[in-house]
Automatic annotation (TrEMBL):
Protein origin, superkingdom: Bacteria
SUPFAM superfamilies from the UniProt entry: DHS-like NAD/FAD-binding domain, Thiamin diphosphate-binding fold (THDP-binding)
The protein, known as: Acetolactate synthase I/II/III large subunit
Cofactors, names only: thiamine diphosphate
Length: 544
């Protein structure tokens, strides 16, 4: 047995059945062995950065710790942005990276992989001996699952080809329960924190209970606390839809809050957040909550005030804290806050009310297109929204179920080009439901080769490209300051034809009738498809 075969055994022992990657000298025999001997599915990307993004999308859609693999030197270097995104999102992920022989510093692909891995992923486990392979693989997965975050497992190419001694024990399979991503265990809040939070809710006149994705399993307890305390409800973008149907749920808070939500939250004097990664976008750079006092409840102490100031941090499990505070509160009636008129306004709210679409002969207003999406897209789907000006439209105007990891918005590093690879990874991880991904023309063109990956995987992904023939965010920022935005504009390209050339069925949309016709052709989504939507370049999203 060779070391690369022992490495394959150790990966499979950790529950690995899918690997994303790109072949090179320092990982091709490992991948071949995983496929031939273990039946592992290998999703071959066209770019190492995209391969790691696919693994990240897989993790976000499934909650499992995936594996990606790249070769030595440039293979790892190209994946730097994706590793940084995963690190900032705290995505559990193991990247198996080959490395050049330590005794050959003049190797053409040699570079300092350890400091690079630490600067991007944040963790690296070097494999230096055959006898330690199983231990090192287990260490990498333990770090990824428990921190959580990405880990680079670094394996030199010369070591991989060594023979394994007969006395090296075989890896032991990890039980499924252990293989799951592990977060800090349930923790009740300190009784003093419960009493303080109950007192704050009693004293407040206009309280808001805000839930993030970390409170998804605590939705019932958080809703009960809001009802008992007379608070209105809101969610972060990632938890949008968590309280859908509640008469006093205002929807998504943040820069993408709708007008009614923005008005009501601006009047709040207390915001109590559960399991929410509060940041500048949740608070719309400080414009949203006005003078409200902000309380944040999170099981992870490091998350409290990490990205936005918190007046009162409370460490504890969302469900346990919400239930304890409810038990300490009398039922509070706030007819001036939870009014019949507010309930009427919530029920009557229409994201497209007053829309007067911009007109052009061969361009559709993106808001008018999203209105068609709201009517036609299947409610049971995974929605992926890439990074860019275009992302504001689906996030502001489309309702998406929050349950079961149904929304993926990989914006942590502000890197464009994420929509397509994350969509592929999500579809591979959750083949039971279609993926609808929104991407911009500029973003798509940074990783056009992954259309080939989409075609080869035959994943059920509908990729919607909102094409304004520009870097829309840059145009939006340059023009108001009197700077010529032509540097951020580009010629029109037939992206549908490119997609078809790479094996993805595609349609071009320039008006609402064409949008309906395209949806008639692609729905239900059972395989790859692309809608090239030529959008009006003058439609501006103020908050994104």
């Amino acid at each position: 047995m060779k070391v690369y075969q022992l490495l394959a055994d150790a990966l499979v022992a950790q529950g690995v059945d899918t690997v994303f990657g790109l072949l090179g000298d320092a990982n091709m025999f490992l991948v071949s062995d995983l496929v031939a001997r273990h039946g592992v599915r290998f999703v071959a990307a066209r770019n190492e950065n995209a391969a790691v993004m696919m693994a990240d999308g897989y993790a976000r859609a499934t909650g499992r710790c995936p594996v990606a693999t790249v070769t030595q030197g440039p293979g790892l270097a190209v994946a730097g942005a994706a590793l940084t995104i995963a690190r900032q999102a705290r995505t559990p992920l193991v990247l198996v990276a080959g490395d050049t022989p330590p005794g050959d510093p003049q190797h053409v692909q040699s570079f300092p992989q350890q400091p690079f891995a630490l600067a991007t992923a944040g963790e690296m486990v070097p494999v230096v001996a055959a006898a330690n392979v199983a231990r090192d693989v287990a260490t990498a997965f333990r770090l990824a699952r428990s921190a959580p975050g990405p880990v680079v497992l670094n394996v030199p190419i010369d070591l991989q080809d060594e023979d394994v001694a007969d006395d090296v024990p075989a890896p032991v399979a990890v039980p499924v329960a252990v293989a799951a991503t592990r977060r800090p265990g349930p923790a009740a809040a300190h009784p003093d924190d419960v009493a303080m939070l109950a007192a704050l809710l009693q004293q407040a006149e206009r309280p808001v209970v805000l839930a993030g994705r970390g409170a998804e399993t605590a939705a019932a307890a958080v809703r009960e606390l809001a009802d008992r305390s007379g608070a209105v409800l809101a969610t972060t973008l990632m938890a949008g839809g968590l309280f859908a149907g509640h008469p006093y749920c205002l929807g998504v808070a943040g820069g993408l809050a709708r007008p009614l939500t923005r008005r009501v939250l601006g009047e709040a004097d207390l915001v109590v957040a559960f399991g929410a990664g509060l940041n500048r976008w949740t608070a719309d750079h400080g414009r949203l909550f006005g003078q409200a006092r902000v309380v944040c409840v999170d099981i992870d102490p490091a998350a409290l005030g990490d990205r936005w100031p918190v007046d009162v941090p409370v460490v504890g499990d969302a469900e346990m804290v919400a239930s304890a505070v409810s038990a300490a509160l009398p039922v509070i009636s706030r007819p001036q806050w939870r009014s019949a008129e507010l309930a009427r306004q919530v029920a009557a709210a229409d994201a497209f009310a007053g829309l007067e679409p911009l007109q052009a002969a061969d361009r559709i207003d993106p808001r008018a297109f999203i209105r068609v999406c709201a009517r036609r897209l299947p409610p049971q789907r995974t929605t992926v929204v890439g990074v860019g000006h275009f992302g504001g439209w689906p996030n502001l105007l489309l309702d998406s179920p929050a349950t079961d990891r149904a929304l993926i918005a990989p914006w942590e590093f502000g890197s464009i080009g994420v929509g397509l690879p994350f969509a592929v990874g999500a579809a591979v991880g959750r083949p039971d439901r279609p993926v609808v991904a929104f991407e911009g023309d500029g973003s798509l063109l940074t990783g056009l080769g992954e259309l080939d990956t989409l075609a080869r995987t035959r994943a059920a992904v509908l990729l919607i490209v909102l094409d304004d023939s520009a870097y829309g965010a840059e145009v939006r920022k340059l023009r108001p300051r009197g700077v010529d935005p032509s540097l951020a504009r580009f010629p029109e390209r037939d992206l549908a034809a490119v997609a078809r050339a790479l094996g993805v069925p595609a349609w071009t949309v320039t008006d609402e009738a064409g949008a309906d016709a395209a949806f008639d052709a692609v729905l239900p989504v059972t395989g790859p498809a692309l809608l090239h939507v030529r959008v009006h370049p003058d439609a501006v999203q103020e908050h994104f």
